[in-house]
Amino acid sequence: MAVRSMTLPANKKYVNGHKVDPAAQPKPSNAAELISKVPPVEIDGPATVCDGGRGPLGHPRVFINLEPHRPVECGYCGVRYVQSHSH
Ligand SMILES: [Zn+2]
């Protein structure tokens, strides 16, 4: 099954009866690229727990082991954590 692009054709001006300006629509998101621009969260300790933030955008809590100077990515939300310094 082919995946349909969510991008509107440039000549499509109406969606479900609503006028649409294609130029005002968000670009197809590239979540991996966006999250890679977020600096790693510094944690003062050998491990942390990530739940993706509270509320509906969160995910099950996962335990993340940290290493100094090597960001570790949360497998759920992609947020990176790094140990701020070794003890
Ligand atoms: Zn996470």
Automatic annotation (TrEMBL):
Domain Zinc finger CHCC-type residue range list? 48-81
Q: Name one GO biological process term.
A: mitochondrial electron transport, NADH to ubiquinone
Q: Which domain of life is it from?
A: Eukaryota
Q: Does the keyword rRNA-binding apply?
A: no
UniProt keywords, alphabetically: Ubiquinone
UniProt entry tagged with the keyword rRNA processing: no
- One Pfam family matching this protein: zf-CHCC
Q: Cross-referenced PANTHER family, in alphabetical order?
A: NADH DEHYDROGENASE [UBIQUINONE] IRON-SULFUR PROTEIN 6, MITOCHONDRIAL, NADH-UBIQUINONE OXIDOREDUCTASE 13 KD-A SUBUNIT
Query: Any idea what this protein is called?
Result: NADH ubiquinone oxidoreductase subunit
To which species is this protein native?
Thecamonas trahens ATCC 50062
